[in-house]
Amino acid sequence: MADEALFEFLHMEVVSYLFKTADEEKCIPILENMGYRVGHSLAERFTKDSSRFKDELDIMKFICKDFWTSVYKKQVDNLRTNHQGVYVLQDNRCRVLTQISASKQYLEAAPNYLAFPCGLIRGALANLGISCIVTAEVQNMPACKFQIMIQRSQ
Amino acid sequence: MTGQRSSKMAVCVAVISKENYPLYIQTIPTEDDLKFHYTVHTSLDVVEEKINNVGKTTNDLRELYLGLLYPTEDYKVYGYVTNTKIKFVVVVESSNTALRDNEIRTMFRKLHNAYTDLVCNPFYTPGDRITSRVFEKVVNAMMLQDS
């Protein structure tokens, strides 16, 4: 579908433009912050019609189902938690990685493409009242794991 | 109280942030609009109480609309909390019986829509005071509509 391709192309262009123009070590935080702002707004928009969330797990389920479907047209494939503030979201076909060759060749480029989605999750959760650190990890190419570590203030 | 019907819908509309500071507050022009600021401020405790009670009783409607927070002699205060903990407070005159629950609901709905549009504006920094003219227009429509 055309509208899905637009987002993919825009994202690819943003990443490649940044890495051409900005300092290497600044690129990831810039992309992450960009995602944060977008996630923050999207959370506001997507939760408009949903009922109030009961707890943290409820919010995570929302991220995995509604949020992911709205952004990436599919649900997160697996959600795991240790019930102590660490959640792992596994997406077997991560949309931002599907256009990249599914071999080990571009594995080291993957973090560049995952900075934006990480920020997206962090921003959405921040707006819903959960401050956290989100990191991504890729072992086999189109599959990706997002680790969410919740920071408790107390 | 004069016999004439009030043409105003709401007398005060306020948007309060996650951290309980006002993002936006608009009142009808009166000599002491500080009174409304005070009313809105005191309503926050009731809002807090209502949110905290939601999880405890089962088969509770987990709605964003909180309903009537508290009535005073002259005014009724209604509340609404988004999932992102932004609070909307609307004050109407008690004498205004034309406003039913449904109308209040629609008002909040409109307010929420306007707020989401505002947050999606890339030039607006979340947590800043709201100065958007579009948002203001929505609020003004709520306050001065003729009945």
TrEMBL record, chain A:
Subcellular location(s) per record: Endoplasmic reticulum; Golgi apparatus, cis-Golgi network
Top-level division of the source organism's lineage: Eukaryota
A GO BP annotation: endoplasmic reticulum to Golgi vesicle-mediated transport
Pfam families per the UniProt record, alphabetical: TRAPP
Keywords: Endoplasmic reticulum, Golgi apparatus, Neurogenesis
SUPFAM superfamilies, per database record: Ligand-binding domain in the NO signalling and Golgi transport
GO cellular component: cis-Golgi network; endoplasmic reticulum; trans-Golgi network; TRAPP complex
CDD domains: TRAPPC6A_Trs33
Chain's role: Component of a transport protein particle (TRAPP) complex that may function in specific stages of inter-organelle traffic. Specifically involved in the early development of neural circuitry, likely by controlling the frequency and amplitude of intracellular calcium transients implicated in the regulation of neuron differentiation and survival.
Family: Belongs to the TRAPP small subunits family. BET3 subfamily.
Record protein name field: Trafficking protein particle complex subunit 6B
Organism: Branchiostoma lanceolatum (Common lancelet)
From TrEMBL, chain B:
Gene Ontology CC annotation, any one: perinuclear region of cytoplasm
Chief place where the protein resides: cytoplasm
GO terms of biological process kind: endoplasmic reticulum to Golgi vesicle-mediated transport
Pfam families membership: Sedlin_N
UniProt-annotated location(s): Cytoplasm, Perinuclear region
Keywords: ER-Golgi transport, Transport
Family under the similarity heading: Belongs to the TRAPP small subunits family. Sedlin subfamily.
Protein name: Trafficking protein particle complex subunit 2-like protein
Organism: Branchiostoma lanceolatum (Common lancelet)
Gene coding for it: TRAPPC2L
